[in-house]
Amino acid sequence: MNLRVVMFAFAASLLLPVASRAEPIDENWHQWRGPDATGVSKTANPPIAWSEEENIKWKVAIQGQGTSTPIIWGNKVFVLTAINTGENDPAIPDPQDQPKTNYFDIKRPNARHEFVVLCLDRNTGKEIWRDIATKKIPHEGAHNDNDFASASPTTDGNQLYCWFGSAGLFCYDLDGNQLWERELGEARVGSSLGEGCSPVVHQDKLVIVRDHNRQGAIEVLDTKTGETLWRKARNEDNAWATPLVVTHSGRTQVVTAASDFVRSYDLDSGDIIWQCSGLTGNVTPCPVVEGDHVICMSGYEGYSAMAIPLTQTGDLSGSEKILWKKNKGTPYVPSPLLYDGLLYYSQSNQSILTCLDSKSGEVVFGPERVGQLSNIYASPVGASDRVYITGRNGVTVVLNRSLKFELIQTNQLDERFDASPAIAGNQLFLRGAEYLYCIEAE
After folding, report:
1. From 306's CA, which of 6, 95, 276, 385 has a CA 20 to 30 Å away?
2. Which residues does the UniProt record annotate as the domain Pyrrolo-quinoline quinone repeat (predicted)?
3. In the chain, how many domains are there?
4. Are 321 and 310 in contact (CB under 8 A)?
């Protein structure tokens, strides 16, 4: 650990409260896919209908770029962004003068970016605090559909964990005091597509997964100090799937989805409990748990979904112990929504919806074209027996959670939405390319 980390760790020991803040997790949206990492809030009751003129509690411009989902804790909303300062380094050629080095012709920026953490008042949208976590020139570019603030923050109710990938990991208390920071090295993502896997916190441990063109890794840190507890190398190519932490069969497992293997690690030791091949390339959807099984899927250069047992050990590839498999219509970017036994997902990034019985894998309905939506990058969310699906064209459709496709409402905003929605209480939060919306019935 460097001196700065040690100093921050000492500060953390002085600033940390004795016990967690008394905010029930179920009433907040503390991580990217919500309280149970399924996309569902069991307590929320957001609006069904809205527009630019109706049920907008507040709308705030967010400077810079970011597709990370906002998280909500108590009366605070936390969001990350990366701001191009325009301060160029003359030692780095202008992007337009750089040679083509990858398939998408993505160039390295030559301008410094501010990597910013914002805290907004949940009731008004007014800024409570902001911090420039770091200021640097990204070491490589990112795809036009990605950016340098695409990993969602997370909180345990005491501390806020903000992961800017190669730009660093930063821990704050909820009042904006930085407690510690870590640089975990630079990732080299194939074709410079950019980073995006979100951190996951479980009790006193923070999990970071980085799968990319070179030597990837899974790393578990102490939440109080940022010190590495264990680190394991991973030989996976590009993947962006946020890991899932689940306690099952007497062990706390970290399930990571990637192209070669879905793996389960013991959170305490880092030992591999089980692994299973069968997904396609560029794995992005995060796993979800249904009973004794974890469901993993991918949808790039093929389709795949598997319900893998959490009770086993060893290599399960091709095993009859896999509960069910699918090879059609699974998502590329969006993660699935698991809502009381119903599993909703889109085909690739298209507005084609399928619903399965999550226990059996049997089709409940679909594939169903949702004609009001264009491409979908945001992951669906659910609350109050409703399903919310947001397209890149600013449209959000609201469906009944039911055994057939039942459209309730179609809503339009003047934005492009790539970030996944967040829901808490009576509010729905939608982060667009320019604005963050808080939607609440009047």
Report:
1. 385
2. 116-364
3. 1
4. no
